[in-house]
Amino acid sequence: MEILKGRTNPTIDRQLALKDAIELLSGKWKIVILKSLYLHGTMRFKDVMETSAGITPKVLSKELQQLEENLLITRTVNNTKPVSVSYALTDHASKTLPVINALIEFGLIHRKKIKSK
Amino acid sequence: MEILKGRTNPTIDRQLALKDAIELLSGKWKIVILKSLYLHGTMRFKDVMETSAGITPKVLSKELQQLEENLLITRTVNNTKPVSVSYALTDHASKTLPVINALIEFGLIHRKKIKSK
DNA sequence: CAGTATCCAAAGGGATACTG
DNA sequence: CAGTATCCCTTTGGATACTG
To answer: Of A78, A88, B4, B21, which is the most buried if we count CB atoms within 10 A?
Structure first.
């Protein structure tokens, strides 16, 4: 994240905010994972795997770590045998809901547009 | 874009729409370019270069081509010497405005969140 | 179950120079 | 002016196998 010194310009702030948001959510899987957690609530590793069809454990692991670093999800190790781990959205993550909904709306419109070509 | 045969499921439709939208808009520059065209209206190649600070001509050229393929911008060659080329948003592109605004809102919120850590 | 390790291919993207 | 060509490095992410 680019850091600004001193007084800032609102237009530039918005540009940076836009780039931040894109950086945070970009990648093939991050938004799919968030969406899945919205739909199903707290989930374990294997459940996220199943609801994010096509992802491999290595990639899922990495994406989850990044989401956690960005305060969008929490990771909880449960005292079971064998161990299970729960992932849940943070309150902060709920702020991404408008983004996800807007993306879906656009995607639906775009599909119609392309089909009619 | 993944094509579905026959009857579809609305939940799956939305998942695919989401992946489409992400694919369409992902990359470091595409949304920045769209945003710039929203702000300034029709622009020439060099103007897009200047308003998208840091991009190189090779990358800009490629991004513009992809946006054109996806029906989000138009490319017009003007009969001047030396030639100039105008890029403008299509009507379809206006459908991405909610996405961009949602991203900016989230980015601004996220910046505050991170700063207060 | 919840990952990690290794290997590898493809894509993204930057620097620089050049062209019609 | 509006790109293209070349080179090259980094990142992304898939396949597969393995571990505590």
So the answer is: B21
- Domain boundaries along the sequence of chain A: 28-115
Look at the alpha carbons of A31, A33, B3, B14 in this order and tell me if their dihedral is positive or negative: negative
Determine the residue of chain A that is closest to B70 in CA distance. A114
Domain B28-115 has CATH 1.25.40.10: no
Closest chain A residue to the Cα of B111, Cα to Cα: A17
B78 close to B86: Cβ distance less than 8 angstroms: yes
Strands (E), chain A: 43-44, 73-78, 84-89
pTM of the model: 0.91
Please give the Cα distance from B13 to B6 (Å, whole number): 12
Q: Which residues, at least 6 apart from B48, have a Cβ–Cβ distance to it below 8 Å?
A: B33, B36, B37, B60, B64, B87
Tell me the Cα Rg of chain B. 17
Nucleotide closest in space to A57 (CA vs C1')? C3
Q: What is the distance in angstroms measured between the alpha-carbon CA of B63 and the sugar C1' of C20?
A: 22
A20 half-sphere exposure, CB direction, 13 A CA radius: 23
Any residues with CB less than 8 A from the CB of A27 and at least 6 apart, and which? A63, B26
User: Tens digit of pLDDT per residue, chain A (117 long)?
Assistant: 776 666 678 877 888 898 889 888 888 899 999 999 999 999 999 999 999 989 999 999 999 999 999 999 999 999 998 999 999 999 999 999 999 999 999 999 999 998 776
Tell me, rounded to whole angstroms, the distance of Cα B38 from its chain centroid. 10
